[in-house]
UniProtKB/TrEMBL annotation:
Its cofactor is Zn(2+). Belongs to the eukaryotic ribosomal protein eL42 family. This is Large ribosomal subunit protein eL42. Binds 1 zinc ion per subunit. One of its GO terms (cellular component) is ribonucleoprotein complex.
């Protein structure tokens, strides 16, 4: 699916329709000193089995792509959960 890199949509901070810059959301790097991550690594460690069973087959073929929208007026950024797609392409809109 092709998505334009600039979309005119509602901004909850400006409370009006403005132009938004479109980017694809990418999860950040995990913090190794966070309590949950330390607990996870401690349970994974050693000779025992894995913390959770490895999945043999997956039910879903695709992932939900999340769009990151940034308002060009106020700079407010919010996420918009997209639909399931195999490939998402952000293109420059030709006027």
């Amino acid at each position: 699916m092709k998505v334009p890199n600039v979309i005119r949509t509602y901004c909850p901070k400006c409370k009006t329709h403005t132009e938004h810059e479109v980017m694809l959301y990418k999860a950040g790097k995990r913090r190794t000193l966070a309590e949950g991550q330390r607990r996870y690594l401690r349970k994974q460690k050693g000779y025992g089995s894995k913390r959770k069973p490895e999945q043999k087959r997956t039910a879903k073929v695709t992932k939900k792509q999340v769009l990151k929208l940034r308002c060009k007026v106020c700079g407010y950024t919010y996420h918009k959960e997209g639909i399931r797609l195999k490939k998402l392409e952000i293109i420059e809109k030709v006027k």
